[in-house]
Every structure is written in structure tokens, then in C-alpha cells.
Amino acid sequence: MSTVDQNPISQYHQTIIIGCGAAGLSAAYQLHKSGFKSVLILEGSKRIGGRILTEYLDKDSLKPLEMGACWMHGIQGNPVYELAVREKFPQHTGTILSFNIGTCVDENGLQISSELHNEVDQFFESLLQDTRDLFEYQQKNNTPISSISIQKVFMEKFSNFLNSNGEDNETRSLKLKLLQRRFDQETGECGCQSMEQVSYSEFGSYQRPIGPDMEFPSGYSTLIRYLCSQIPKNWILFEQFVENILWDTDNHVKITCANGNIYECNHVICTIPLAVMKWSYKSLFTPALPTWKIEAIQKMDMGTVDKIYLFYEQLNFFNGDSLAIVYDREHDTLDIKREWFKKIFLFQKVYDNVLLCWITGDEAIFCEQLDEKHIGDVLTNLFRKSLKNPNIPTPTKVIRTQWFSNPCAKGSYSYVPVGASSCQHIHDLAKPLTAHNKSRVLFAGEHTHTRYYSTVTGAFITGQTQALQVAQQLTANNDTETLVKSITDDFNKIQWKREEPP
Ligand SMILES: Cc1cc2nc3c(=O)[nH]c(=O)nc-3n(C[C@H](O)[C@H](O)[C@H](O)COP(=O)(O)OP(=O)(O)OC[C@H]3O[C@@H](n4cnc5c(N)ncnc54)[C@H](O)[C@@H]3O)c2cc1C
């Protein structure tokens, strides 16, 4: 694979894909299968995979550490699962990581019974299920419900639930803290700062294929490596951060990268993440985007979820597979500089000597700036206090992800905020830009799937769908000129000399 383009002058390709994550690679894989040859992927960073990034603890790649996606959500009708089965990616045989709570304590060391946290969790789950049912009802009966946040609705229902149980003040306060922990966990599922931001009426728009979550024993990058192995190596160019897409010229699209390279093509499949587009759409597109597209980019949102891995010689102090800590807070706002760690909703044992915890939103973004040793020290203090054990060692190593600071991601995954509509705005995110009656810029990526947004499955499906759209347009005969040009270009590249008879 080429890393830096040697030739800064304009290059022409039939299709250019921007981004080499799950969506971009799935599009390239589909185009290759459909027999297209003039395809180029422009990747802004130095690596493939985007928000799929597996590091390994061992040489044999059997102990993966997922920095990004980890679960393949659901199996029925999930093309990622079907591909994994068809290509015999090994299935995970061990325990699948889950958000189940093992031990639960408060930050001052009070043990919280499983009955109590289960009661709160089960109530929360039943509210989530109502929300999903509500969305399906709205869809069937075409009855839009006014936009309000999940948190607001759930707080009200939870208050009624507490009142009807006639709890004493202490139990009531503990349950509210448990509820706050559950809200924080849900920010990890949704990829947002707070459940105050997430639309109640739209929450149920998010779906997963039916069936259990799966993990690959060698990590989610197995998928990325497979897709990459199926396309020509010279299709991918690294460090080509796209800065501008000139999309309404007569018969082609012109792409300019930050390094000055210019590429021209007939169609673009843009898989730039929503958060990157939010930051750059004004300069990214020339001419300016139509208002419906701008509205979709502005209304939809993508937040930050980061992971922190803590390494130890041994994990003697950690009982069971997971630890949930509830903090002295009954509300959403934290004094970030002093209390950022109170957003961590769960610590999970991922290997005998490695813990993983999750952090979201502004607290995650703040944590991205901190020194990793400092993070280890703060969390050691938290463990010592909440597990009442002053001898807990500091971790030997800390790794935390920095998805927000990554200019090619600017966050983790998308969600539908209050005021947005999945039907309208995700649909508009996915809608192509058309010039001279042709779809010039097509959009793929997790944020463009109306039900599987935020997931690898959503990214994979949208990449494939947009590739098929391009294939359909190119083979519909009205594009024969471009086909001929790209075929001629391909011929020109072949180093071939006719042998003349003596
Ligand atoms: C911490 C975390 C945990 C997650 N857990 C799960 C999970 O368990 N299961 C699940 O299904 N999903 C999970 N996800 C979400 C999943 O990773 C994404 O939905 C999916 O990988 C997105 O794929 P994509 O192709 O749409 O975008 P990306 O993977 O982000 O690909 C976009 C590509 O475009 C490149 N790019 C960006 N801007 C430019 C530019 N201007 N020019 C050129 N290239 C550019 C990027 O470098 C990147 O390679 C998780 C994500 C994170 C961060």
C-alpha cells in the first residue's frame, strides 16, 4: 500500500472512497466484487480501520485489546456475522464482555446489595423497553411525539416509582445514585454526554439484529484485515486528509487533500464521521451544502466514549468480573477537574491482570488531556477508598483512548438528540449530493443507517449499499464515457510493449 502520494498532480479515478474504516472498506469490497477497477480510497490517517482498532497483548494476536468497537451486535440478518461465518472467522468461545454488575459499592466503601441494584436496573430496562415500543407505535400509527429527553421522562417515572414504594430517605438517596450510574452507563451505550441530550421519542429508533452479541477472538480488526485482503493493495492511499470536495462541476468531482494532492473522479463515497463533518462541513464542500444537509449535520450528534485500560502485576484486590461504584451525586453535573472519574460507570476484568473502564462525554474529553500516570493515581485512590483497602497497588501501565482528540474521528459514535428525527435527519445524512442529474457525492458510515446507527454493522451495510448505487449508475449506460475513460486510464497504466516480429 502506498503511504504518501508521489504525484501531487491530479489523478482521475472512477470512484473515490473517503475513509478506510468499516464503511469505506465495505464499499471498496463491494465495488471490487462487482468488477470495478478504477477505485481509490483516500484515508486521512496512517492506518486502516477507523473506529475499529485492535491492539494485542501477545505475539499470537489472541489477546486483543479493543480501543474502539468490540461487539458484533446481533446475528440474524447481520451481514458482518454472515461474512464471518462464510469466511470462517473464528467465533469467540470465552466469556463475552458485558455490562453486568458483579460487585457494587459506593465511593465510601458501603456494599450495595445485588437486590437493590438489580431492582433499579430492571426498572430502568423496563423503561427502555417502553421507549422502544413507543417508537414502533409512532412509526405504525404515524403519531409523532413531542421531543423531550430520556432523562426527563425517566426521572419523573422513577420518582413515581420511589414514591409508590414509600422508601426511607437513605434507600431513596441510594436508589437515586444507582439510577445516576445507570444513566451514565446508558451514555456509554448511546455515545453522548448525558441522557438529557437523547431524544425520548427517538430512542427506540436504534435497533440491533436479533441474537446475542459476539466478539472475535482476534478482535474486531479481523474484519478489517479480511476486507483489506480482498481489494488491490494500491487502492488505498494513506495520509490523504480530505479538505475540500468540489462537487458540482460538469462531469466530475475534484477532491483536495491537506497535503495539496488533488484527485478527480466520477463519484465519491464519503464516509467521513459525522463529528468530523460537524467541524468542517463549511469548508469541506464547495459549493456550500444544501440547507437540508446542513440541518441534518447540525441536528444529529456524535459524542465521545473512551476506554481506560489499567495493567497490574496481579489483580488480587479485584473480586469477580466487574465492579460498579456509585458516587456521591444525584444529578448530572460534575465539577470536571476534581470529579471527572465519577462518570466511570463500570470496571471490568478483561484479562487476569487487566481492568477496563469506560468514560463518556465532557469527562472523557477532559480525561483525554490527562497524563496516563495521573489517571492511574486517581483511580487507585478511588479503589482504595471504595474497597476499603489502602494497599491496592497503582497500575503498572495505563492506556486510555483519545477518540475526541483524533482529528479523523472527533468522537465515538452517533445518536439521535432531542429535536432530531431519525427518519428525516439520518435519511438526509445518507442522501447524495446531486449535480447535473447525477449523484456525485454519496454518503456512507454508521451515522447514515436509520436503525443500526453507531455500529460497525450499520457502517458495513451503508458502505455496501452506496457501492451498489455507484455500480448501478455506472452500468446504466449513461456513464459509458466515464467507463471508457477509466478503462483507458487503466490500460495506460499497464507497462506493456508489443513484441515486433523480427
Ligand atoms: C470506544 C468505541 C467503542 C465502540 N464499540 C462498538 C461496538 O462494540 N460495536 C459496534 O458495532 N460499534 C462500536 N463502536 C462504533 C464503531 O466503531 C463505528 O460505528 C464504526 O467503526 C464506524 O465505521 P465508519 O466506517 O462509519 O467510520 P470510521 O471507522 O470512523 O471510518 C472513517 C474513516 O475516515 C477517515 N477520515 C476521517 N476524516 C477524514 C478526512 N477528512 N479525509 C480522509 N479520511 C478521513 C478516518 O480516519 C477513518 O479511517 C465503537 C466505537 C468506539 C469509538
UniProtKB/TrEMBL annotation:
InterPro entries: Amino_oxidase, FAD/NAD-bd_sf, Flavin_monoamine_oxidase
Top-rank taxon, per record: Eukaryota
Compartment list: Cytoplasm
GO cellular component: cytoplasm
GO molecular function: polyamine oxidase activity
Keyword Flavoprotein: yes
UniProt xrefs under Gene3D superfamilies: 3.90.660.10, FAD/NAD(P)-binding domain (3.50.50.60)
SUPFAM superfamilies: FAD-linked reductases, C-terminal domain, FAD/NAD(P)-binding domain
Cofactors required: FAD
Domain (Amine oxidase) ranges: 23-470
Keywords: Cytoplasm, FAD, Flavoprotein, Oxidoreductase
Family under the similarity heading: Belongs to the flavin monoamine oxidase family.
Protein name as annotated: Amine oxidase domain-containing protein
Taxonomic path: Eukaryota, Metazoa, Spiralia, Gnathifera, Rotifera
